[in-house]
Design goal:
Helix content is 42%, strand content 22%. By secondary structure, the protein is α+β, with helices and mostly antiparallel strands.
Length: 112
């Protein structure tokens, strides 16, 4: 993302130079869109850098590093009949005689 922001800044600088020499400038809306895109990408890059600085890599059962979710790092990618979903695997222990849930827990892993 940082490379994309750098590229957009270079494009913005080139557009500024073209605007100085031309009497009819590029529409302001295009420049505003580029500026907004640069700001959005810079915010996302800063958010990811902060996240990576605060969290250790998640490791799977085989020691391989797993992908993390910046919004909810405890959740996991799980294969379902509807495709891959980001979420939790919930399990409940039920007393069928009294129809009461005795214990429930949500796991951020695929199959439990």
């Amino acid at each position: 993302m940082a490379a994309k922001v750098k590229h957009l800044r270079e494009e913005h600088a080139k557009a500024d130079h073209r605007e100085e020499g031309a009497s009819i400038a590029e529409p302001r809306s295009e420049q505003a869109k580029l500026q907004e895109q640069m700001q959005r990408l810079a915010r996302q890059a800063a958010r990811m850098e902060k996240f990576l600085g605060e969290h250790e890599p998640k490791r799977g059962k085989r020691g391989k590093e797993l992908q993390s979710n910046v919004t909810d790092n405890d959740s996991a990618k799980m294969q379902t009949a509807h495709g891959v979903l980001q979420g939790y695997n919930g399990q409940a222990l039920v007393d069928s005689t009294h129809q009461v849930i005795v214990h429930a827990e949500a796991f951020g892993n695929g199959q439990e």
